[in-house]
Amino acid sequence: MLPIQVLQQIQQQYNWTGAIQSYPLNNGLINHTWKVVSAKANYILQAINTHVFPQPEKIDQNLQLLAKHFSRGNKNYLFVGPVSTDDGKTMVCINDVYYRVFPFIEGTYTYNVLTKPDEAFEAARQFGKFTASLTHFNARDLAITIPFFHHLSYRYWQFQHTWLCADEVLKKQARELANPISDQVHIVKKFNYFIHKNTCLQRTMHHDAKISNVLFNEAGKGVTVIDLDTVMSGYFFSDMGDMMRTYLSPVGEEEKDISLIEVRKDFLQAISEGYLTNMESVLTAFEKEHLLFSGQIITYMQALRFLTDFLQNNRYYACSYPQQNLVRTANQLQLLKQIQNHPTGKQQLYFLE
Q: Do the Cβ atoms of 194 and 200 come closer than 8 Å?
C-alpha cells in the first residue's frame, strides 16, 4: 500500500489540487505501481526498485534523452515519458524511495496473456516501431541501467562461477538441469559471433518485450510501448528473442507440465511479420537472415539466469516456493528444445570458423 503521507508529498510536488486517490496496479514484477486519480487528470505513479536498479538517476537521464529526441525528431510517436514537477524534476525521492509520475493514457489497456496471433503482431509492430523511430538517435548516449543485462557470455560465466561457489545441497538439487544447460554452450559461441560481426549493429533496444509492456486501444491495435527502464544500447536479438520466448508458447514460464510447452507457428509468423513491418529497412541483411535465432539466445539466457538464481538462494526472482526457479529453468530448457526442433531452428544459419 502507498502510505498516505507519501501520496500527500507527491501531490505537493506536482501541485495537484483537490482530493486524490491511489489504486495499486499489480502487473509489474519489479517496480511498485499505482493509478492516481485527481481532479485534473489520471496518472501512473511508480516506485523504482533500487535493488534491481541501484542507480535510478541513470533511468531518469535516459528517459530525458529519449523525450528530447522524440520532441525534436519524431513528434508523431507517442512517447510515454515521466511528468515533470513544478520545478522541472522528473523523479522525486521521498524517504529514500524514488518515484516517477507518468500520464495515464485514456482508452488504453495492457494484456497479461496473449490469446491471438493478432495481438502478437501488434506488440511486435510496436517494439519494432520504437527501435525504428530511434534510428537517428545515438544509442551509445544511453546509460547502462543494468550491466550485462542481455550479455549471454556474462550470464554463462556467472552460472559457472556460481556453480563453483554454491552450497552442495543446492548443487545436488540442480545437477539434473546443469547438464542440459552445459550442453547448450554452443549458443554462447554463436552469441559471441553475432556481437563481433560488423554487420550486427548496436541500436536502442527495449530489452523487456513482454506483452504487458505494450499499450493497446479499444480496437485491439497497438498504441505504444511502456516501461522503458531497461532501454539501452543493444543488438537485434534482444527484443525479437524476448518476444519469441514469451509469446510462442501457450503456457508461461511458471508451468510445471513441460508437455504443454510448444511453439505456436501462427504466433511465430505474427511476431516476425509485425516486427519487420517497421524494422525491414532498418536491419542489415545479416541481421534479417539470423533474426529467428534470437529466440534461442534469449530463452537459453533466461534458463541460465533462473538456475543461477536458484544456486544463489533465490536472491533476484521472487519465489513462492523454494524450487520455483528449478521449475522455471526446466520450463525454459523445454521451450528452447521446442524452438530448436522447429524448422527455422534446425537451419544451419552460418558456419563458425
A: yes
User: In this structure, how many other beta carbons lie within 10 angstroms of the beta carbon of residue 151?
Assistant: 16
Q: Are 47 and 39 spatial neighbours (Cβ–Cβ below 8 Å)?
A: no
Residue 189: is its pLDDT beyond 80?
yes
Q: Which residues of 244-281 are buried (b: 16+ CB within 10 A; e: fewer)?
A: bbbbbbebebebeebeebebbeebbebbbebbbbbbee
Give the C-alpha separation, 311 to 318, whole Å. Answer: 14
The SS3 call for residue 216 is strand
Q: Which of 186-190, 192-196, 300-304, 343-347 has the lowest mean pLDDT?
A: 343-347
**Mean pLDDT (the chain, rounded):** 93
Contact 306, 270 (CB under 8 A): no
Condensed to tens digits (0 to 9), the pLDDT of residues 107-164 reads 999 999 999 999 999 999 999 999 999 999 999 999 999 999 999 999 999 999 999 9
Within its chain, how far is the Cα of 1 from the centroid?
A: 25
> What is the spatial distance between Cα 1 and Cα 133, in angstroms, rounded to a whole number?
37
Residues 179/78, Cβ–Cβ less than 8 Å: no
Which three cell numbers, joined as nine digits, stand for 257?
Answer: 507440465
Contact between 126 and 223 under an 8 Å Cβ cutoff? The reply is yes
Q: Nine-digit cell at 191? A: 552469441
- Residue 247's DSSP bridge partners are none
Q: Cα(216)–Cα(210) distance, rounded to whole angstroms?
A: 13
* Residue showing cell 511528468: 83
At how many degrees (to 10) do helices 265-279 and 117-133 cross? 20
Taking alpha carbons only, the member of 189, 285, 187, 273 closest to residue 236 is 285
Measure the CA–CA gap between 73 and 71, rounded to whole angstroms: 6
The three cell numbers of residue 251 are 503456457
| pLDDT given for residue 345 in this prediction | 67
Q: What is the dihedral of CA 159, 160, 162, 166, to 10 degrees?
A: 120
pTM of the predicted model as reported, rounded to 2 decimal places = 0.93
End-to-end CA distance of the chain: 56
How many residues in total does the chain contain?
353
